[in-house]
Amino acid sequence: MDASVFRGETIAEVVRAGLVESVHSGHLVELDAKGQIAKSLGAIHAPIYPRSSVKALQASAMVRAGLKLKPQQLAVVCASHSGSEEHFKVILSILSDHNLDESAFRNATDFPLGDKERRAWGDKPATQLAQNCSGKHAGMLATCVVNGWDTNIYTHPDHPLQKLIVEEFETLAREKVQYLTADGCGAPLFALSLAGLAQAIHTITVSPDPVYQEVVSACRANPLMIAGEGRLTTRLMKAVPGLFMKEGAEGVEVLSMPDGRTLVIKCADGSWRPMGPIITATFQRWGVQAPDENTYVYGGGKVVGQVVAK
């Protein structure tokens, strides 16, 4: 994609004492309850890597392929978890329920994603379990066991599971996936347009398909599993009844309300700073009661401005 197209439009401004000090550019699409575009900024039909924001779509393909999990387990399959002991306990239960252990993982190693969890980790080496996508990988492995598929190569793009995931993406987004590569965890990563991603999130929210309802309901019921204590996703899902939300690396955020209203954001510089303000402004327009997630600008210990959503 041409860099000028990728930069998109201004989605938020950092305002200090009435002067715009910095600008966040990117792409944004908002759908109404019927799935029609209510607002858009940037190149919403250009491809992006949605990163971990699509884990609920991947989980839907697993459930459709026969994966049966408890809600808490299914939620952590959709997670970019912080790496708490509770996360590890649930992930290991998925493996043990399918006669697997950590040696089956084929994801990258990493340290816990959460700040508190990483500090508690100390000087221990990085592990595959601690990597924030290990829940998804546990779900992929369990799906392979259920279907008798090779667990050694489950991250290969031509594996039966990954082909089913592509089919699920294309059905939900109503477009073909593009630009096959590897995500940070090592699983296949496909590009979708922001408009296609928004359509997919809207559909899993409002569709009567029992697979989508099972996945989204598991996420809503277990916000701590989806991210972790103190993180934006968990905070808002706890506070806003029926909210589904998921972040992805490099400044991607998706969320939907039970009636189908959907917001998808891609910050061009990969930043998280504008996310809270954009979501807060959107909730205010929607009439949704939610915590103030604005980002304020300080000078001399006093508020002198804030990040303002466009």
Description:
- The protein has 310 residues and is α+β, with helices and mostly antiparallel strands.
- The chain has a single domain, classed as 3-Layer(aba) Sandwich (Beta-lactamase).
- It contains twelve helices and eleven strands.
- Strands 1, 2, 3, 7, 8, 9, 10 and 11 form an eight-stranded antiparallel sheet that branches. A three-stranded antiparallel sheet has the order 4-6-5.
- A hairpin with a 2-residue loop joins β10 and β11.
- The chain is globular, with a radius of gyration of 19 Å.
- It starts with a helix and ends with a strand.
- The model has no long low-confidence stretch (mean pLDDT 96).
Summarize the structure in short.
The chain is of the alpha+beta class.
